[in-house]
Prior knowledge:
The chain is α/β, with parallel strands linked by helices. It has twelve helices and 28 strands.
Amino acid sequence: MEIKISEGDFAHMGVYQEKESIVFTFEAEKNDTCSIVLISEKDCKNIKIDIPDEYSLGSIRSVRIKGIKPYDFSYYFMVNGRKRMDPYATAIKGREIWNDAERKKSDYEIYCKIANQKFSWKDDHAPEILKSDMIIYKLNIRSFSMDLVSGRKECGTFKAVMRKIKYLKELGITSLLFMPVYEFEEMNIPPKVEIPEYAKNKTKIAQKTDEMVQKTDKVNMWGYGDGSYFAVKASYAYDPKNAASEFKSLVKKLHENNMECIMEMHFLDTANHNLIIEALRFWVKEYHVDGFKLIGDNLPVTAIVQDLLLSRTKILYENFDLSSVPDGRTCENLYIDKEEYMYPARKVLNHMNADMKELLDQQRKQGDGYGFINYIAGNNGFTLCDLFMYNDKHNENNGEDNKDGAVWNFSNNYGVEGPSNKKYIKSIRRLKWKNAMMLLFLAQGVPAVMAGDEFENSQSGNNNAYCQDNETGWVNWKNERKNRKNIQFLKDLISFRKKYPIISNPKPFKFCDYKTTGYPDLSYHGSSAWISQFDLDRMCVGTMYCGEYSSDNKEYVYIAYNFYSYREMLALPKLQKGKKWYKIADSSRNENIFSYDAAPSKDQQFVQMEPQAVCILIGK
């Protein structure tokens, strides 16, 4: 094999093919001693290629190598005698098997590779779901699918997730939010410790080393932390050698079903800002990803907002400087994603220092252009089921003396810590679950559901299951069969949200009659109609959405909330001549929570609310 080298072109970082050559570009100072080590895929032999220091520009070294084929080798860089992985590598060799014990051996190595990106996208196109239509479902590839079908080799992979696209589509989901799918080290591998010859046979030192391995023997199932941000995680693929193709097939399948792929990207504070932006651009161009949820404190958010290639890519983050949006551009691809909806909802649901006004402000929260993401439960904290089954977190199995995970959860066990066979307790817990879902999907912002919450998935009170790569952290799909009623209820709820788009109005409500319809766009009602003031302890209120402000369904929607522990009456506004109120949903019902064929309410002035209930009335 004849190898020829010449100066590279510094076009972009990483490794790529250019006609008959391979270009390697990486960070290094001009006075650094640099080389590239190629490892043959056929015989594992190493070829070391020294890089002249004149192949430098700024703090970048770039070399063009002719005489090698892109998929015949893996590689790494040597800088001043130290091995350095390529942070722009599109594939990683050595992590093909999830939690592989072989990686703890002292002679085990991880290398970089060039991923084969050939894929037929054909006529693939981005769905570009409007924020008013979005329904987010968040999942971890492994925990979502490990218990999907027992004994099937594809569990824990992209292929397994593809099997559930039909189920999610029928549920009403529009957007899948994936926890990290780029390469990360799921194993806590202790650093290599060189033991002097004289001490190798000392029993205490050997025991101490074993103890260190045991203490760090946990799995980072969620993937947060440092990562290889340009490489698909090989162990998430049924065929690890074709991980890139499998993930592309998943994205393409989602697009065929008019569903979106949104990726979580967690960057450390020390991450290079240029790398961050290049990584986002890479996933959009190469994998047709529709959006990102950004996690990290020191991110180049302004540069991301202003990036032309990302201008129609959805960006979810905890805050934005909207003044940085360029003139002539909208901010409709920006979504504020933080916990500000979660706590007011939990406090009201579980009667813990509840503030109804605070909750109603969250129910009508919407930006002028930008959007908000709402959730009551996520991967951080209790599942939605456990929120009403446990007072306290139970993270003992995480091995951190139950000191990890959120302390303040605003949860309530309703009499028994954990599962209960008492009918009353089971009934109140299911009512709370229904009320939580109704709050979430009757709010104006984009609702986000955590995988398994649709059928009351439990983690046995663990509110930080990041290392529970077992039945605790996996979604229990047996619950799907046992909770068909819950799934049907959620389908009906999502269907209602889509049928009445006034609920998810993309513009903020003004609380006035700016269209001269005779009614404001949104109004509040108590024991008397048209109230405008709230007592601090008031826990029962009605909200009316005037259908005349909807671009589609012109029927009026009245949502009644009663979080008292007793029955309450709410006043119904008088409708225009010929229209009547119909109660179509009531969370206090055990069966047929939604009933569109209901007759007009007998009482057109008041609606009687059961304790701890949410009702929906339609004016038509």
